[in-house]
Amino acid sequence: MKIIKEPSIYIVGKQIVNSEDIKRFLRENNITWQTDTEIGAEMLSEISGRICYMSFGEKQGRKTNKEYLKNIIKSRHGSVLEHSVWNFIICGVSRSFTHELVRHRAGWGYSQLSQRFVDESETDFVEPDLISADQELHEIWYKCIENIIENYRLILEKLKEKVSKKFPDLNQVMRKKLVRQTARSILPNATETKIFVTANARALRHFIELRGSLNADVEMRKVAVKMLRLMQTEAPNIFNDYTIIKAEDETEIVTTEHRKV
Hints:
By secondary structure, the protein is of the alpha+beta class. The chain has helices at about 20-30, 40-55, 65-75, 95-100, 130, 135-165, 170-185, 200-210, 220-235, 235-240; strands at about 5, 10-15, 85-95, 110, 125, 190-200, 245, 250-255. Among the domains are: about 15-80, no CATH class; about 130-185. The chain has 10 helices and 8 strands.
């Protein structure tokens, strides 16, 4: 059993721009357009915004992608950011975290580790910072977790016997699912989980702004700050208006002058 204190985020997918069809669109509509970014998300956000006003060629106005997206964010034209999408795997987070994460609906998609199908006998747990920083609290918490996982294993074995006797005609897959979905009822919110997440840039900005604030749960805040750092490298012209600062409680929070884009 491993105790986890920091989340991990992996960017496993992003958009590829179809440059040939962009050129065909420009050619067939007798317009020209050039951008100085090679980042697909930034390029697609720019071209989707320019479509709204057909601001190409001589009407292009702001020439650089950075200038263009800076104005988009400043004017809160956030809908064009919905066309930029990434795929993530988030690990080392608790069930408490994902209970809150999945409340973000617009612009998000989720596929989470299932406790109905996965045996959690060897699972890990996420320890809150406030508890891990205090030896007495840590020992109480750890004993509690040890007791729960020991009883989970015991219940699992008892349920296997019971289900085999009571439902002898059930196939093996259904037996396992019935046993695990019943035993999971005693697992705590601290149980580590893994979740595959898809989100667009606007949804990510909302998440970072809301969950990276001082009012957010500490674990949510950790993920929001880590997500921001990744996205500022991944698409700086979309996320560089955010700043990471130290809060009164010594944790990191995020701030921006461009809220609710």
